[in-house]
User: Fold NPH3 domain-containing protein from Hibiscus sabdariffa.
Amino acid sequence: MLNNHIKDLEIFQGTVFQSIFAVLQRGILITRKTKRKMKFMKIGTKPDTFYTEEATRTVISDIPSDLTIRINNVCFLLHKLQVPLVPKCGLLQRLYSDSDDSNVVTLDLHDVPGGEDAFELCAKFCYGITINLSAHNFVPAFCAAKFLRMIESIEKGNFVLKLEAFFNSCILEGWKDSIVTLQTTIKLPEWSENLGIIRRCIDSIVEKILTPTAKVSWSYTYTRPGYNKKQHQSVPKDWWTEDISDLDIDLFRCIITAVRSTYIPPPQLIGEALHVYACRWLIDTTKTRLPHSSGSQTEESKEKSRRILESIVSMIPAYRGSVSIGFLLKLLSIANYLGVSPVTKTELIRKAGLQFEEATLNDILFPSQLSTDQHYYDIDLVSAVLGSYLVLWRRQSPAPAENSHYLRSIRKTGNLIDSYLQVVARDVNMPISKLVSVAEALPEFAREGHDVLYKTINIYLKEHPDVSKADKKRLCRMLDCQKLSPEVRSHAVKNERLPLRTVVQVLFFDQESGSRAMTHKPKFTTRARQEQPETGAEAKQESDNKLQHEGMKSRVPETSERDFQKRSEAKTARGESEKGKEMRGGANSSSKVFQRSSR
Assistant:
């Protein structure tokens, strides 16, 4: 496959190579590609005479084989001295000298790094057969050559020297070459670490990441939606994030750690790299519910994803805003599905709580991934993040005042939660306890009005017609009738889904508000204009008094039948206006309803 790939590169439009230099020295040909493509090296001039038959690999030759090398389950039938195989390999010289004087020598090299494929590259080099080296096979070839001791002290111009020259002049100079080479080290981590391949590749990659964008001249991958390189002449600041997302998580962590240690890229850029990596390797659980399987393959994949997610969370910069709240909530949803450690989940909830006021409705509308949940939306996760946010809010906020930053924050969060509850109330399997728990978690002054809360209750009762009377009362108990608009109160008194006690309370406050409006009705227009500032001051004073009592719910007292009738009779005796008479009629009818509910 690699040979075909290289052949395709050579004939691509007939002009792929921008510079070609050949060094014919001991059968070596090095070809360097353009700055926009990866580089490779050709060594040797002879055609490939190796062939494989079952588990045996041999060379087509008139000379019979006198050297057998066994690697794992593969046997190589080669020649000792007729070709410079043994003379080029210090290890084979030592093993050959220790063997008996029989005509055919058999050697076992089961521990050669890279296995039989890497050894075949070394053997072909000794036979002078053409081989193609690139970032994809450099690491096993280099490790195997080191293992076989194909060094200069054994023979001049040996394989290790050629590989080191290619590594220094081509791989480390290239952007994608360094990344591909670094990724291949995961198959030989100890050898790559001891030979310095990992360290030098990381240094090369980090150096290029820190290069000013105006000096970036190499090819990179950037496939953001809506981005067109032809329309953008400047290099984007996050040009490097997609290419390094191909790396294994441990190597990716090394890159990010090295970049962060320089304190040059801003935290948001680090966060973007983490976001790209998560999108590359983690499944998206925010769109639909995923099946839970107990198969070994699935469990192995889950374990890998858990390790990736926990590593990503540990790399998120402490700076607030380095990643978006949407990304944090997405990670939290994935964490629920994967079953990550409690420490990781707690840290995600804490980070999400810090930025929860920035969330949108789409950010928190995702399905539950717990197999035990019958309801669709993950309301428990939203409740946990909301709780973390409220703990931090209460710790930081002083006594709330009108137009303060903390009041605006809690009001914004309150609007978000109420909008969320309206959506989840349509879930036919949503338990009423979870809905009430989230709704009551907000402090009193988080809601300027209760119109949206009333709509949520109405939606829930409509979608759950079989809800019990006790649950209806529990649901409506969190409703403050004083905070309902006249339009909503008018709808509520006609709503047959509401408990009778709630309807009576709405009628009561509707009557109270109407009476106050008639009592304070100005006789002259000029008088109304004079009293307008005073009314505004009173409203502000009343608002401040309400805000000073956090957590105190302004409930309508459960008026007894006798008190309710006394209030109605007192208003009847006033005889204020025709509208007052109509209201008295409404009070009498409500009293009858109250009597029926009491009975």
Q: What stands out?
A: Strands lie at 28-31, 40-43, 50-53, 56-59, 67-71, 74-78, 105-108, 131-134.
